[in-house]
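User: ok so my PI wants both of these folded by tonight, can you help

Assistant: No problem, let's get them done. Here's the first:
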Amino acid sequence: MRITLLLGCIFLFLSTHTFAQDQIIGKWLSEDKQGIIEIYKQYGKYYGKLVWLKKSYNEKGLPMPDINNTDKTLRNRTLVGLVILNDFYYINNKWQEGTLYDPELGRTFKCKIWMTDNNTLNVRGYWGILSEVDVWTRVK
């Protein structure tokens, strides 16, 4: 009886923990409403790719390239489909130790992510001792 109860408690804890860390999975509208990022889990880490941009095409009618990238060799890659959140782990109710690529600045920043509720995601990018938080909203 005790073993069954103990195993039940362990299963409940593990399933609750897994559910909490996977709440981030889904589509999120950026604070400026210019893009939608789809967050997914792969090999135990969390990633996010741009799946929609308000301005998806340039003046020539071609898919919008990564023109602001500081690496000139990457400026021809298309923004839609680009993975901009990389290598996040779920630690202490936050997704941490990952990076965020900002296509407007063409730079990659250290980043932490946390949820204030099921539909609100806080994304904090760090550069040195400075940081900025964007608030993303779940797309239904």
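One down. Here's the second:
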Amino acid sequence: MKVSIASDHAGLELKKDAKDVLRAMGHTVIDYGPKTAEPVDYPDYAAKVAASVSTGETERGILICGTGIGMSMAANKFHTIRAALCFNTEMARLSREHNDANVLCLGARTTPKEVCLDIIKAFISTEASKEERHRRRAMKIGTCCTC
């Protein structure tokens, strides 16, 4: 799977570890930045990942900032994006199964690193439900990529 990833300055270190986990899982990773810890505006990086998923360049995206809130708000402005801010693996699994989430948002300052890495594994390895009720609900959120 091709996965896009970006962060702001607060999520830079976690992003590096996330890329290692994704590659170890056998996925191709496209890093949209930033490359340094200099302060940046997170909406600019959310837009890069959301656009790559929205256009089909990548299948899923991961966004990391201090809390994950700003990234999720910015990403969800894009057509076909269903970005989910997750704090544990159950949220990640259910966001994929029930909502067909295609972008994962994480808070580097609010969730421990090891938990974040487990969340990424759950998000990437979980498929969207094919049940009609879940597909119907995802369609109501926005255009559903699996329908």
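The chain has six helices and five strands. The two ends are 19 Å apart (CA to CA). Good luck tonight!
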